[in-house]
Write a structure and sequence with these properties.
globular; single chain; Rossmann fold; about 40% helix; 2 domains
Length: about 325
């Protein structure tokens, strides 16, 4: 695929300038490496700490590629689409292979954003994906907060993804985008997407009346929520994270409702690990899909995030939450 470093750099630098920031030297090096690898029909695994611009640059490069035969997938959305396709094809031979074909289609380029592995079942599916795309000689670039060898960090299950790690190291170049600055902690444009959301102590007006409480159906199940108002979902932290919800519901709600209000957010460390993980997953989804979310809590955002840093796998959520505006209103009694 014919992509020049200079053209890619110029295109992405112009996009960055229109968004109000400039690329740093390491980010420019990443763009040049993406162009070099793509010209050679190779693949690139981009890793580094949260908030360094991996996804932004990879997205901008993906948009600039001069081919319609390209697919972008995000971790949660990919697994959801894959599971649904496997379910549809459950009576067919090679259901997983056919399901991967459904997701990837006839693409020559696959961009996998936020590649991470925390579950042994996911490890098997992601290994099958890697086997499939490299067998088809696709150009693959992926972003991750983990170096390949550190994927599926739980030592009990790490061996389950060693075949996937081997596929990555054998078929992909690696690039570490590091640096001291978490750009999500710097002043942000709050005009759109997840960054248009707010962390506040005051419930927005008008607050839902009791008779607005309803149920939101997702794939045959009913989930209680505080209210549904046109394009806006009102839901409590308890409803979102302390009941049996999953990324299936978060993805569906995010596709339907571009605005959320999440009320009664407690301190991160007072809820159990399952509720913490659901919140981490929910933020992954709504940040990726650009849902403008108002979080209502008696705690300040710095207090909430300080408690979250004790959990090793919460760093992506901590970085993303720094995109939010923080109101200066008084705490709720």
């Amino acid at each position: 695929m014919r992509v020049t470093s200079s053209r890619a750099l110029a295109t992405i630098e112009a996009k960055a300038a229109s968004a109000g920031f400039a690329l740093d030297d390491t980010q420019r090096e990443l763009i040049a490496e993406l162009a070099r690898v793509t010209r050679a029909d190779g693949s690139l695994f981009i890793h580094g700490p949260a908030g360094r611009g991996k996804s932004w640059i990879a997205n901008a490069y993906f948009d600039a590629l001069p081919t319609p035969r390209k697919t972008r997938v995000h971790f949660h959305g990919f697994l959801d689409a894959l599971h649904r396709s496997i379910h549809r094809r459950r009576d067919e031979q090679d259901a997983v292979e056919r399901a991967i074909d459904d997701v990837v289609g006839d693409s020559r380029v696959l961009f996998f954003d936020e590649f991470h592995v925390h579950d042994s079942g996911d490890a098997r599916l992601l290994t099958r994906l890697l086997e499939h795309v490299f067998r088809q000689d696709l150009i693959v670039f992926a972003t991750s907060n983990y170096a390949p060898a550190d994927l599926l960090p739980n030592p009990v299950w790490h061996h389950m993804f060693e075949p996937g790690i081997a596929l990555i190291t054998e078929n992909m170049q690696t690039f570490e985008l590091a640096g001291p600055t978490d750009y999500r902690a710097t002043p942000q444009d709050h005009s759109s997407g997840f960054a248009a959301g707010t962390w506040t102590h005051t419930v927005p007006e008008p607050a839902p009346a009791e008779d607005e409480a309803t149920f939101s159906p997702v794939r045959g199940r009913e989930f209680p929520v505080l209210a549904i108002r046109e394009d806006e979902l009102w839901i409590s932290f308890h409803q979102l994270c302390e009941t049996p919800t999953s990324t299936i519901e978060y993805l569906e709600w995010a596709r339907i409702h571009p605005r959320w209000v999440v009320t009664d957010v407690p301190a991160f460390d007072v809820v159990d690990r399952e509720a913490q993980q659901r919140f981490i997953n929910a933020v992954d989804v709504i940040a990726d899909l650009g849902v403008a979310t108002t979080f209502v809590s008696t705690h300040t955002l710095p207090e909430f995030l300080a408690a979250a840093t004790a959990r090793p796998d919460a760093f992506r959520m901590v970085s993303r939450m720094q995109l939010l505006r923080q109101t200066a209103d008084k705490r709720m009694a």
